Batch of 4 targets.
Target 1
Amino acid sequence: MKKLSGEFLSNVHAALGKANASALSNEEIGDLLRRTLKGNDPYVELPTLQAGASTASRFATFDGQSLQRLNSMLPWSSFRAIGNGDILGTAWSQNKRNTAAPYPDPQVEGLHGRIDLTGMSVLELGCFEGHHSLSLAEHCSEVWGIDGRIENVIKTLVQVWMAGMEDRVKVNLVDLERGPLKQQLSSLGRDRPFDLVHHRGVLYHLSDPIANLIQCKDVCTKHLYLHTQIADHRQVDVELTHDGRRYAAHAYQEPLQRNSPFAGLTPVAHWLTQDSLTSVLMDIGFAKIEVIKLDEERNGWRVELIASR
């Protein structure tokens, strides 16, 4: 089945944002949209999904037209099956996020097999489009999902609403680069720490990963789950410092595509090496570190681990 790609929808929304921020004439708006629409095929071919049980409690009231409107209303970057062969969302492109996100998420289930998530309170950094949020809520008593992009907050809210999980999942706009995490959470009415910080796909997009890890320690009492890109020793070109200690890192130039969900929000991010990451975690009070997986992927090495206090 053919659907509009998330990349195309994101570009259209970015163009509309520019038009909304300026007093453009009809002709200027038309030129802006024409430039946006020109070029690549806006459609992606998605696999036909098997009809099955619904994973969205509110889907029963949806007609086909309402679902189509919802899927084109937001700049989705991924999709999941919600029953009867239908999907919520779309692929980012023909080659990226072009298969349905599994539910429940296998990484969350693997984490649950290592540390019992039952009844835990969880802070999820970078909720993206809510796939991990929903899976965490299957086990945890409370999930706080935060993201620095308002579109991701809205898409996660839609996922949570569609799944009928509003009582377990709260979603907020929090930019980790804007200020201390504990302070931002307090401004939202959350002063109690969490049992677990779920930190997947975010650390390597941050300008100061050490400060962020310290802030994570300040808001969790038990575990930090971390999945992040790390630097190979051959990539090391800078040293980050904290309390007189030095940590090897790589300065990565972010593409700064604000409308892309796969880029950071600052011009330069810093990737720690595995040794530096381990040292930082131990130096700030995470006494036990369990490496779940270490893989070399298309963009380099990634590590998945659990750090416990």
Target 2
Amino acid sequence: MPQTIPLQIVAHVRNGRTSTEDADWGLVESRIVLDPAFAAGLEGLGGFSHALVVFYMHQDPDREPPALVRRPRGRADMPLLGVFAQRGRMRPNPIGVTSAEIVRLEPGVLVVRDLDAVDGTPVLDLKPYAPVFDSRQGARVPEWMDRLMKGYF
């Protein structure tokens, strides 16, 4: 089993946002600018309302060390949780996945809203949001998740 996996960057996020602060991402409109070699892959995506954006969280501005157990966002009012019970950026592999609203398509560019990725973020993949795969009836989250997400989007 390989210890590393080669991945290709298919695009970069352009939105002017440099802060990784966990707030107000819903106000951010982002341009996902595809590498010309992958631009044709956008064909047909405009028929969907949302896309799943898979990206590499390349910035660690506060140099927070990865931890397998921590409180979400370091908040004292949050429970101690394992990294796999959280969606934060301090992970064994800093991979982000966000369902973003498609605003429009331009040649070689996907414009989205609600993407929590800073300017320059490498994009690894794009997939159409399809409720049959991506939404589960009866899904539940613990109470702390609702408190944590207030003001995020």
Target 3
Amino acid sequence: MLASSGLIKVVPGLMIWTVVAFGITFYVLRRYIFGPVQRTIDQRRERIREALAEADHARDEARRLLEEHRKLVASGRHDAEEILAEARRVAESMRERVKEETEAERRRRIEETRRQIEAETQRALDAIRREVAVLTLDATAKVTGKVLDKDDHKRLIEDAIKELDFSALEGRQN
């Protein structure tokens, strides 16, 4: 049965023509098809390799830029904190300076007011002394009925002033 099949029979002429056709086809394929296809595959492989290298480079660059960005952000935060701390120090310094200036101004005004009060008290006491002296002279002239000379006036005024107690009025100014 096997011998009856035509596909299994060895026919030398058909075999030679099959090998020749295979050789020509292989030569044509190798010469005109395999070379360009292999070059295309090699070119594509090279483009893929370059693209991967570029992607690796881009990834490295992105990592570097990200790290640089993080450093800049951290530096910016640090700078902002320093500026804020400096602003707080300046504000506190200004607050203290204003407080000291206000306290100095308050003390100056109190001292000025105290001096004005002392001056007014002294003027009032001097006015009272003058008035007492005038009243004493008038009273003496009316009681004695005579006009006093300058020495008598002076002696009477000094005696009258010595007898008056101004210490209570002068004590209030201290």
Target 4
Amino acid sequence: MCRCNPTRKVIPGIEVAEIRSDLPQEPNSFVGRERELDELRKLVSATRMLTLTGPGGIGKTRLALRTLATLADEFSDGVCYVDLADLTNPDLVVARVATAVGVAEEQGRPLTETLAAALRPRHLLLSLDNCEHLLDECARVCQLLLASSPELRLLATSREPLRIAGEAVWQVPPLTVAGSDRSPGEAVQLFSERAMAALPGFAVTPSNADAVTELCGSLC
């Protein structure tokens, strides 16, 4: 899914559909991560290929989506998000990306060539999410697009780096459990919000604060 400038680019010989305008809706509130988001915004400006790495559940996808949303207006063709989590066949990675961008397959021409040609003039931030089970093919596609599209920037999420030339790897840190002044950290704030959503009336109090902090520390 994409969030982009609605202006249509005319590319001779290639049919490019209108790119969809909305990123996936976040399922619940986004807690903290302001320092990380600021660093990611700077990194996207400084490198053409950035990969967020870390174990499952640490927040790679949420950080990527929030980064896309905050940077959409800085790219004339906007941002585009491609979720690869449910894809099991690496041969379909290119097709999934092409569908998200709005590129139709041409008879007698490899889809990779059509996709590369369609993205060549675009100033776009493209995100490939959940690459870890498709590393080789994701790396191949990213290398191809980086080489053919000078104004394209890529933001990937994966449990492992893609290990391609020019890739900047950023390890997603766990949420803080306690602040520098021993106030509740982001992990405790997140636990509190999710617990209140599941159990109305729940609150972190002096009587349960140590247990909540210990639990969050064990999870982080």
